[in-house]
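Narrative of activities, Objective 1.

The group set out to show that a structural description can be obtained from nothing but a protein's sequence at a throughput compatible with the screening campaign. Below is one input-output pair from the validation batch, recorded exactly as produced.
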Amino acid sequence: MRKQLIIGLALGVAGCGSAPEPPPATLWPTTSWATSTPEAEGLDAAKLAALDAEFASGTRGQITGMLVIRNGKVVFDKSYRHDFDALFAGRDPARGPYNYYDPDWHPLYQHGHLHTMQSVSKSVTSALIGIAIGRGELPGVDAKVMPYFAGDFRVTGADPRRDGLTLQNLLTMTAGIQWDESTVAYTDPANSCAGMERSDDWIQFVLDQPMATEPGATFVYSSGVTMLLSQLIKKVSGKQADEYAAEHLFAPLGITDTYWKRTPKGLSDAEGGLYLTARDLAKIGYLYLNDGMWDGRRLLPEGWVKASTQPLVDTRPGQPRSRKYGNQWWVLPYGGGSKHAYAALGYGGQRLIVVPELQLIAVFTGWNIYEHAEFAPYDALDRVLATVTGGPGQ
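Output recorded for this entry:
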């Protein structure tokens, strides 16, 4: 009897809260996202409502959606309607998928619910490269890439710098290939990306550009190098990037509703052609937040997320809060530069922002290509961070 009493007392002491609680189980939104309230997940509902009111009023332009997820649960999800047919009227009579004023393609695919991702597509393409490396179809980021184009494309002008081009150079946009899509608008024919999109063979267009610097020396934002990644995926797998994504990335995540544009040669437009819903885009962020694991299955090779979201390149040296770049992902320092969020960013205001330390994901969509400026990445990050009232477990 005394022995039973001692055991009972021991169990009673153990149940008084001295032992730490086990961490909550990870929620996997393969079928659907769990939902919660901002307050329950340590966010300020009033500050989220204030941002919502700005978007709904139209003072921030053509914002189309705002989605906030914390601890694996949707806590805020709003969409905003705009008459894009009226906005586009009289601007450009030429219709088509690469006329950014065509309401059949921008921002919604065929006026439906799939939203253009624009250059967010680049970050998804980076995930596909990681998968190809994990499957042994690509040897690694140090691989020389020019042999993969030999025989299928011509390379004009011998330049030994081009021979040294690696997969890592493509991923970090330090290829050294002459390119300019930053100093002129995407709607300007002088823009290199616009020139590529007008060409019949996008890969040949990129390879026809001369080398400007040694690979690895300088960051130059280039949709062209992302298209080279699309060709690499096709070369090593025998599948277009959209087909490869559907099998190896989207299916495990439960993403079935997508559209991905293709070039005149039938190549997947990896630089800006993907269309998704905001909730499915958030799944990409959640995959990265969980180190490439999904419901007990490793989709991205170990270490790929960390390598991809490190500040490998400074895109604006010397400027305050200069954005950094990883493997086709933007890195946004905050907290005085001691912490990092990472983001997939796209033309017109597409934003997927992941704050690992806070178990926080935010998605913003929009089409601010008119008189309103895009919802700037740091503006988006700062507004979301300002809503946090408690730690990740709150």
